[in-house]
Design brief:
This protein folds into 2 domains: about 60 residues, SH3 type barrels (Roll), CATH 2.30.30; about 60 residues, Roll (SH3 type barrels). A 5-stranded antiparallel sheet has the order 6-5-4-1-7, with no helix packed on it. It is built from 1 helix and 14 strands. With about 150 residues, the protein is mainly beta.
Length: about 150
């Protein structure tokens, strides 16, 4: 079966448009710390012990294992059962200001230093690049997505 160049172009373009978009899949380390490995096996080299709540981006799932990227960009493997769908973010700037509303002019509720863990209470970004977060002490507010990693 032969297709004219015009039909072939339409088929190629149509399949490109219909291709699914790849969404980032963020999860967090569960209730217990998780061992990260250099390969999808407990026989692999242990490279890091991830603390409870640490956010990771799931890049690939292979059987019972997930290949994950951490905030530093390092790739490693973790048993998938060690991860939870509960979302956390980590502050990636020297001092993030958490506001009462998704607006720079709103009052600052609290500030969080670099590497502080915050719970993502609403994974849907607010217009203008803000997400709603909660500190473990109970304070909550909005932080710019550019000031955290894991959203």
């Amino acid at each position: 079966m032969k297709f004219s160049p015009l039909i072939l172009s339409a088929l190629i373009l149509g399949s490109a448009v219909a291709a699914p978009a790849l969404a980032l899949d963020f999860k967090s380390v569960g209730a217990a710390p998780a061992v990260l490995y250099d390969a999808p096996s407990e026989k692999g080299r242990r490279v890091f012990v991830a603390p409870r709540g640490m956010p990771v981006e799931v890049v690939l799932t292979y059987g019972e294992w997930s290949k994950v990227r951490d905030a530093a960009g390092t790739l490693s493997w973790v048993m998938s059962k060690s991860l939870t769908a509960k979302r956390n973010v980590v502050v990636n700037v020297a001092n993030a200001r958490i506001h009462a509303a998704a607006d720079d002019n709103s009052p600052t509720v609290f500030s969080a230093d670099k590497n502080v863990l915050l719970e993502l209470t609403d994974a849907t970004p607010v217009s203008g690049g803000w997400v709603k977060v909660k500190h473990r002490d109970g304070q909550s507010g909005f932080v710019k997505t550019s000031e955290v990693w894991g959203d």
